[in-house]
Amino acid sequence: MAIIQDLFGKSPIGYLMEHARKVHECVELVKPLLEAVIAEDYGRVHLLQDKVSKIEYEADLLKHNIRDHLPRRFFLPVNREELDGFLQCQEKMADYAEDFSVILMIRKTRLHPELHADFLAFVGQVFQVTGSLLTATVEFRNLAEVSFSGAEARLVLGIIKELGQEEWRADRIARDLSIKMYKLEGEVGPIDLMFYEKMLLKLSAIANEAENAGDYLRAMIDN
Fold first, then answer.
1. Core-most of 169, 191, 210, 219, by most CB within 10 Å?
2. How many independent structural domains does the chain possess?
3. In the predicted model, is pLDDT for residue 109 greater than 60?
4. Which pLDDT band, with edges at 50, 70 and 90, does 147 fall under?
């Protein structure tokens, strides 16, 4: 039995899901951070930024643990490069969520009231993308038990396809929000606009990396 365990190693799939849940905890704090900025409650922004930083660090520890315990030889249930690519995308999602929190923390930027609803809608759409990724990852763990085939595989591939559509919707919202932001030139100072753009870019990056992570999941299933 020990020889068989040495050959196949421990399956990393369960650890992947644990890491994905931790990354999603980071992303979940994006909305309360934005709400705190809208309320101009900068003390709460600082508290939430500390929380994001702590969770991002915990996600990093999980990521290192996965990499340290991957079988170095013989068999893995998935392609090692694709698994590592998935991990990197997840890592970037947590990093971008932390970057977003830092942008809000380092300056008491007032978000123009005309942008409140639009930014909240965009954050909601980003969360749709990352939520679909988490669902796909949970189902992917179940899929590993049935050799990545059959109706279960089609279910996960369907979720990943929907994830791509949700990311496309996020791109559309980001484009419209960017146009609306720059229509406020004159009412809003250039530094405020610069910070709005930074906020928008970090949120977009979270959604983009979620889609990339979904692509890696699809590749692991197809292989």
1. 210
2. 1
3. yes
4. low
Q: For residue 8, what pLDDT is reported? A: 37
Half-sphere exposure of residue 152: CA atoms within 13 angstroms, side-chain side: 14
Whether the per-residue pLDDT at 196 is higher than 50: the answer is yes
Percent of the chain that is helix, strand, coil (3-state, to 5): 85, 0, 15
Q: Which 8-state DSSP code applies to residue 109?
A: P
One-letter amino acid at 184 equals L
d(CA 26, CA 95): 9
User: Is residue 84 predicted with pLDDT exceeding 80?
Assistant: yes
Domain boundaries, position 169 = 2-222
| Cα–Cα dist 24/95, whole Å | 11
Torsion angles phi and psi, residue 166, rounded to 5: -65, -35
Instruction: Return the structure tokens found at 63.
Output: 């990521």
Distances (CA, A) of 215 to 7, 13, 159: 28, 16, 11
How many residues are there in the chain?
223
DSSP string of 126-149?
HHHHHHHHHHHHHHHHHHHTTTT-
Q: Could you tell me the CATH number of the domain that includes residue 205?
A: 1.20.58.220
